[in-house]
Amino acid sequence: MAGEANKPNRSIPIAVIGSILIATVVYVVLQVAFIGAVNPAVIANGWNHLNFNSPFADLAIALGMNWLVILLYADAFISPSGSGTTYTATTARMVYGMEKNGYLPKKLGVLHPVYGVPRPALILNLCICFLFLILFRGWGVLAEIISVATLISYIMGPIALMTLRSTAGHLYRPFRLKGANFIAPCGFVFASLTLYWARWPLTGEVLFIMAIGLPIYFYYQYKNKWRGFKNQFRSSIWLIVYLLCMVTISYLGSYKFGGMNIIPYGWDMLLITAIALVFYFWGVRSGSYTEYMIEAEKINGSLSGQEDKSEFSSKSQAM
């Protein structure tokens, strides 16, 4: 979505940092309000004796604030629509991108002539959503699986950033992340730890669901006469081994994260950190110049020209 920003060098930092700060402030205020509203007698013997299914709603009921209870339950229904809107937009773009790369039928990449939205991709995602709602036990389980699957896509970010720095460092970019040599490996390690904290067997279930899509991938590779497959496979071996290692460690890890406790608590996270760094450098070194970079260079050249014209126009107006 950042690629559609008019001024990414200004908009991206504001959007990322601003959203994190707003969420932090909201959650801190909520925690302070909750702790201040709890009766001290309830937690006299420890927080584990506090048993609220819906903490704020239960507190409002205890205080006789029925209007607030209605508001909280309504908000519990309305608030997820923000994330739902984001997922709707991003998953449609993912399907659109997969079609452009030749891995899905061409009909899924058709854009609406007025709004520029891939409606067939939206319909496909809607059908998949209905299928998931039927197959899984409830909204909580579905939300967990979606969160972990999204987390795996975040893991690719640091690798992609540093790979492009080495293979396409000459290209024009309107936004450049400072300190990426430090931020990227740290981000990869933290994302790996978060994936581990998702707990077994959820990590294994998500990997299994991802594997379900492999027959579709291999079908379109066969249809495209395995064009570029050897190079793609060689560049992605690190990811295959990484995911298998993460699932194995999740299974053998401590009881706190659903594992067999063969790797005790504390040592498991040290192991994840060390392995994540190994796979980070392996992933960056596995990057290569692909055929898609040729098209990217053409698009990049046009963007660079537009930026130069924009800067010239701004300077002319200033003069």
Task: Describe the protein.
This protein has a domain at 139-296. The chain is 71% helix and 0% strand. The protein contains 12 helices and no strands. Helix 6 (139-167) packs across helix 8 and helix 6 packs across helix 11 (267-286). The longest helix is centred in the N-terminal third of the chain and has 30 residues, at 8-37. Mean pLDDT is 82; it is low at 308-319.
Name the helicity range. Answer: over 70%
Q: Categorize the overall geometry.
A: globular
Number of beta strands: 0
Main pleated sheet: none
Quaternary organisation: single chain
Helical stretch count? Answer: 12
Q: What is the arithmetic mean of pLDDT?
A: 82
Beta fraction: under 5%
**What is the H/E string?**
HHHHHHHHHHHH
Which class of secondary structure composition applies to the elements?
mainly alpha
End-to-end gap: 35 Å
Unreliable residue runs: 308-319
Radius of gyration (CA) equals: 24 Å
